[in-house]
Amino acid sequence: MISLVEVEETNKMIREMNLDVRTITMGISLMDCAHTDLKTFNQKIYDKITRSAEHLVKTGNDLEKQFGVPIVNKRISVTPIAIAAGSVETDTYVPVAEALDRAAREVGVNFIGGFSALVQKGCTTGDRKLIESIPEALAVTERVCSSVNVGSSRSGINMDAVKLMGDIIRRTALATQDRDSIGCAKLVVFCNAVEDNPFMAGAFHGVGERETVINVGVSGPGVVKRALEEVKGQDFETLCETVKRTAFKITRVGQLVAQEASRRLGVPFGIIDLSLAPTPLVGDSIAEIFQVMGLEEAGAPGTTAALAILNDNVKKGGVMASSYVGGLSGAFIPVSEDHGMIQAVQRGALTLEKLEAMTCVCSVGLDMIAIPGSTTKETISGIIADEAAIGMVNNKTTAVRLVPVIGKEVGEMVEFGGLLGYAPVMAVNRFDCSGFVNRGGRIPAPIHSFKN
């Protein structure tokens, strides 16, 4: 049971510290929609999504009013389309993306994830069709999000897929260049992708999941910042305990919302993802937490250690507060969605190389980073390979969401809007890696992956 004291604490966090439920995401299996005819398949997935999620947005809005907790997004994730549509006789999955977009618009969610492929060991025919469809699919849809998993700690890194994704990101940027290449903001390349992530753009409904499920993502950088301000200058033990206690309280809010949403929708509760996901608002920034910890700016020496402390203790506190904690759970470090990170880039404190080092200890990876539109596909592939290697060797999820903004160069600003925020275009290493990327094949899994 959730006590009245917890409710009062929650109300204070909402009023004064930017606490919110970032998303209620309904996962929907499309496995039973399989069909060889494209039109029939699209109709079946449209019908299932609109039927299953018919009351999702209304339920989220009702819970927001009842509990006074902001529920920022209501979203849907579906079975990776490369799997669900594997038997469809078609040369392109763009019409499938359009059907997903129509369904998302019909039920009122802001994003639908799952235009995805899992190719860590190799590509099937369906995988290849889906990946080749991504640039056009993200150009002609508004709410569809896409992800591709190119590696894992058990299988290694599919470098053929890494090479291909560098080209796909470039093509997606070109296909949406009239909107500052925003299509790339809806495309994530993973290593060790998880099946129950409620956050976009990387959400999909894994094949090991139930028919339908409710996953909730809770975010509270502002709450953590305020708590740490009260112990400013104290030792690391006190700092860690404060983060853990705060994470526990934040996760309890997600548990309350998830359980009630599950009950009202008649859909099983899946997981709570406690990820400190920032927004462009002042006071809702991971970088500001670093400053409270004692760093002048994000990127200063000690930043990776500070992030490791934050990420680890968020997990430790959150896991005690919910029956099921999953997803990514930790601290996100997107540039465009965090005004403190943007400021650090503008002041020269934060570079792409420092961000890569930080991804060794954060929840995801290189996230929402604008880079010059002239960046080559080989360079993008090289960055993906580096990030996948970090995930593979360290047995953690890593991801790359780069936006090569066509027509813009280092130092220029790009405006994505909404939660996607705005960002300065960051410099990338100018030296060539094409000889490495073009080798092809697969990088084997590390020796410590053999645990049977």
Task: Give structural notes.
It is a single chain. This protein has two domains: 170 residues, Anaerobic Ribonucleotide-triphosphate Reductase Large Chain; 220 residues, Anaerobic Ribonucleotide-triphosphate Reductase Large Chain, CATH 3.20.70.20. The strands form two sheets. Strands 1, 2, 3, 4, 5, 6, 7, 8, 9, 10, 11 and 14 form a twelve-stranded mixed sheet that branches. Strands 12-13 form a two-stranded antiparallel sheet. Helix content is 43%, strand content 18%. It is globular, with a radius of gyration of 21 Å. With 452 residues, the protein is α/β, with parallel strands linked by helices.
Short description:
The chain is an alpha/beta fold. It contains 15 helices and 14 strands. Strands 1, 2, 3, 4, 5, 6, 7, 8, 9, 10, 11 and 14 form a 12-stranded mixed beta sheet that branches.
Report the count of strand segments.
14
Structural class by sheet pairing and helices? alpha/beta
Distance between the termini: 40 Å
Q: Under CATH, the topology of the largest domain is which?
A: Anaerobic Ribonucleotide-triphosphate Reductase Large Chain
Q: How many structural domains?
A: 2
Mean pLDDT: 89
Specify the helix fraction band.
Answer: 40-55%
CATH architecture of the largest domain: Alpha-Beta Barrel
The residue ranges in which pLDDT falls below 50 over 5 or more consecutive positions are none
